[in-house]
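Action item from last meeting closed. Structure (150 res):
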């Protein structure tokens, strides 16, 4: 098992678990995690207030940690997105967290670039990505500007 920030774990068989400090939530696969992520994202505001955000927090932990399976998680999220707006939300959310806020841009930039090559969902996500000034210049040059991916 690989531990992520002490809360999210992906086992060798692909199962995912998340310790939300009150209980442990588990998904049998990355597909199931992505399905639950989108289920929560598509709730109304009032429904979201009453529903735990475990899948969302789990994805966030995996991105901030720079988990080796982070790009596979993003693939699953992009495959589960129903609209370009949802794909854009992946770019401005988890992908940005991985490359900017988690500080893993240099580690993942080349693989992100390769995945985006002929893949419309990845290109849409990248078209909405904002790389802050603290992201290494090499990453900004490799993946920016967003207009390049439209």
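Sequence:
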């Amino acid at each position: 098992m690989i531990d992520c920030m002490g809360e999210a774990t992906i086992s060798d068989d692909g199962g995912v678990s998340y310790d939300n400090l009150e209980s442990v939530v588990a998904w049998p696969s990355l597909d199931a995690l992505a399905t639950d992520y989108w289920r929560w994202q598509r709730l109304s505001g009032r429904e979201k207030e009453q529903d735990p955000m475990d899948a969302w927090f789990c994805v966030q932990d995996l991105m901030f940690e720079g988990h080796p399976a982070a790009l596979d998680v993003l693939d699953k999220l992009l495959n589960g997105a129903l609209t370009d707006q949802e794909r854009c939300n992946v770019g401005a959310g988890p992908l940005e967290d991985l490359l900017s806020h988690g500080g893993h841009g240099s580690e993942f930039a080349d693989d992100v670039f390769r995945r985006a090559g002929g893949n419309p969902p990845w290109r849409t996500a990248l078209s909405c990505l904002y790389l802050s000034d603290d992201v290494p210049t090499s990453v900004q040059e490799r993946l920016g500007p967003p207009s390049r991916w439209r």
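Note appended to the action item: The chain is about 55% helix and 10% strand.
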